[in-house]
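Researcher: Last one for today. Full complex below.
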Amino acid sequence: MNAHAPGSLDSCSEGWVRDEVARLLARVTRPGRYTGGEFNLRLKPGASPRIVLSYPDVYEIGISNPGLQILYAHLNDATPAAAERAYCPWPDMAALMRAHDVPLWTLEAMQPVAGCDLWGFTLPHELTYTNVLEMLDLAGLPLHAAERGEGCPIVLGGGPAVADPWPLAPFFDAFFIGEVEHRLDEIVDALAVPSRAARLRALAGVPGMWLPGVSERPARRQVFTAFSSTPPVLRPVVPVLEAVHDRAIVEVMRGCTAGCRFCQVGMWYRPVRERPVDLVVEAAERLLGETGCDEVSLLSLSSCDYSGIGEALTRIRALRPGVRVSLPSLRIDSAAESLGSFAADQRGSVTLAPEAGTQELRDAINKGVDDAQFEEAVRATFAGGFTGLKLYFMIGLPGETDADVAGIARMTGTAARLAKDIARGRARLSVAVSSYVPKAHTPFQLEPFAGAAVLRRRQRLLRAALPRGVRVSFHDVAASQVEATLARGGPGSHRLVEEAWRRGARFDGWSEHFRPEIWEAAAAATGIELGTADLHGDETLPWESAVDAGVTRSFLADERARGRRGELTGDCRDGRCAPCGVCGGGVEMDVLP
Amino acid sequence: MTWWLLTFSRGGPAVYLSHLDTARAVQRTFARAGVPIALSQGMRPKPRLSLPLPLPVGAAGCEELAVVEVPPDLPGPAGALRELRAAAPPGLIPAAVIVVGEQHPRPQALEARYTCVLEGDAGAVQAAVERYATEVSVVRERVSPKGRRTLDLKDYVVHAAAEAVPGGARLSFSIRHRDDGAARPQELIDLIATWAEVDPVMRGLKRRRIIWKGLPPGPSLGAERSVSR
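Model: Here's the assembly. Have a good evening.
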């Protein structure tokens, strides 16, 4: 049933929210973050089990996460469970909650999170880890799973960051490794038994589940093999507050086999699976009605690679006048063609990601884009009437030299010249430069992090070399250093997270909240050196003892070696299988004919 | 094109929306209901929808007003109202649709009546309200991103009264809207709370009634005749 269904509330009445919560809401910024009230919100009073889904960031970020929408819709609409949500309270609210002893509540029932049966976190990246502890603490739960007893919910982690669960391992009762859609029913069934211990035992039997200190072998990453035949979420929760993304989302494809050697999600979500165009278009039509949005985003890791992209764009635009379709990413080698398919009235800005400044380094990372393709894409952007161009680069990649950094400035100069010649100064050009962080289960998983000193020097070098008039933004090196420490943390790395949280670290992904001095102090207190990973050559890597990602270690090692030789590896969807080890046992690439 | 007036109430979780979020919620309700809104001209067309009197964050509104331009060939408002009610988010309840015609209505609020509860000593709140009534002038400074401005609350806030309720006092007051602006409900609440030495947090703030001018002749917009012409 629909929560607070229109007409069911006397809109001038009080009493829908507890007084203790209402008092806090009156004192904080953006109180609507904490009250639900969205379109398509579900409420199932009395349903069991009661599951809370969380994204460890502020509401406006978390509500835009499509993964959580999938879980929320399936659990509420296709299982007996009631799924509710909680996001990380902003510091002003957190302070008030502590001062007034009000525990974290859910947006649906406005009831304490701690009373649920299972609390699931989607873990997007390392800089949200302290927010997980913040939410556990605000809910009134013991931080450590070992200290939780009967009556405490089971805390379950999932999402891409569980590629290495060690930095959070002691805080979670269990982790689910991989895509969970087809395992949700089993998870709900596991909660039917009465005691906490029995529930944990039942959960341990669900494929893909890894229980710290209990599981004796790594959990195999789960792949949702029915992706192609399953419709996307058709009735998502639509925020009333302004969120970071305000559009209807249709996931057209999962997985990417372009094989960029730095990219963790490219390895994590293999193999490629595509939804039929009919399913995509039907979903888009339904979503336009359910959400009230006038923009549909065709979501995937690389939507230009979706086999039905042209037909889908044409048919969705024909659904009704004024519908806009957006693609979250464009491939440089096919950008000119893709840009031409956008309607004239939606030509805003374009983002291209060359990633590296020279051909040698782009070959080393398997980003097989050449200068001519880049120039053609930029030319097509400005000639097509787009008003802005944003370029994404990374510094700190393995094997990078100062010449590669100079190459970033050179490519930006080329783009600036074309902007001036073609757009006659009417187009904006900006450059975003992130610091490369080696991640688990990638070909570069054994590469060292470049280090703060090197990154800062290269940032200075680049800033001095970039042409005037170009807006440039850099990732905070200190934050990248923390990310690098946690991305390949082993057993014991949780001490750094806990110490930093105890010293006040919160919202580390937000530049205005990230406080490097806290992490430095936490590192000193725990004896963990920031920016390093505890690796020992051919021994089992820390994350390998918890997670079997499916991509074999020999494939990753081979790719690393090929990268050092500057050799490209083709996309297996083009017919040449790069034997990464994922396919087999019912898991296969599933692309449109 | 045709102009409609939509009256609606805002309560429940919707009271915590900002003015812009409320406008977005109304616009999205129309889209979900399949009732098109006319778009402005220009490079970036915007829906022709406005809420003429912003409601403070945290306040319920018993009868709010939206001015909307729709295509002329839409079927009658009764069916649209049904669809709008079904499509609205929790707490935002469309009450009536009134077809105005081709003339753009530009309603202006003359006065709005509010109530809220201040927790604490009811006697102290009542004394503070009595003091307010006897003051000739109560000048306050308002600091905003636009700068500083002084205003005399007595020029705007009228009919202030307080009655004891369990746990505190119910404050009721009216705010006049003049050509030079209006006082904010929170400004009076802060003043009374300061004088009464109680917590200034406004709880249960409700805008119960608005008196308009500039509305076209037609049927009453609300059951309680809370909208007048």
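The longest strand of chain A covers residues 388-395. The first helix of chain A runs from residue 19 to 25.
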